[in-house]
Amino acid sequence: QVQLVESGGGLVQAGGSLRLSCAASGRTFSTMGWFRQAPGKEREFVAAISWSGGNTYYADSVKGRFTISRDSAKNTMYLQMTSLKPEDTAVYYCRAPYGSSWSDYDYWGQGTQVTVSS
């Protein structure tokens, strides 16, 4: 059974940092990503990483502030978030593709709340 378990969310002041983790079990993936959903908004892409080459992709809103990484031995993905802003407040979700690309059948974690106070 595939499971994605996020951790590391919390409450932080603007300008602060947090590191999220997503531990995967049950299988390995070629790509994994972070998405977030703020209250009243649609879920949006934050960052993604290819497992083999370590290529990374970021939403413009987080470029230069967030860093995605992975530990292949632990089958775990991370999101280092710095210079946090109140608009980063959201539930952050880990996502892994069921097939070779993103689809409606993908695996999702349960989410972890990140709250940035001004």
What does this molecule look like?
The chain has 118 residues and is mainly beta. Strands 2, 4, 5, 6, 9, 10 and 11 form a seven-stranded mixed β-sheet that branches. A hairpin with a 4-residue loop joins strand 7 and strand 8. The protein is globular and about 40 Å long. It contains no helices and eleven strands.
Entry keywords:
single chain; 118 residues; mainly beta; seven-stranded mixed β-sheet; 11 strands; 52% strand
Kindly summarize this structure in a few lines.
This protein is mostly beta strands.
User: What is the mean pLDDT?
Assistant: 95
Oligomer status: single chain
Overall geometry comes to globular
Low-confidence stretches: none
Helix count, DSSP H or I runs of 4 or more residues:
0
Number of strands: 11
Helix content: under 10%
Structural class designation: mainly beta
Rg from Cα: 13 Å
What is the topological layout?
Blueprint: E1 3-7, E2 10-13, E3 18-25, E4 31-37, E5 44-50, E6 56-58, E7 66-71, E8 76-81, E9 90-96, E10 107-108, E11 112-117
Parallel strand pairs: 2-11
Antiparallel strand pairs: 1-3, 3-8, 4-5, 4-9, 5-6, 7-8, 9-10, 9-11
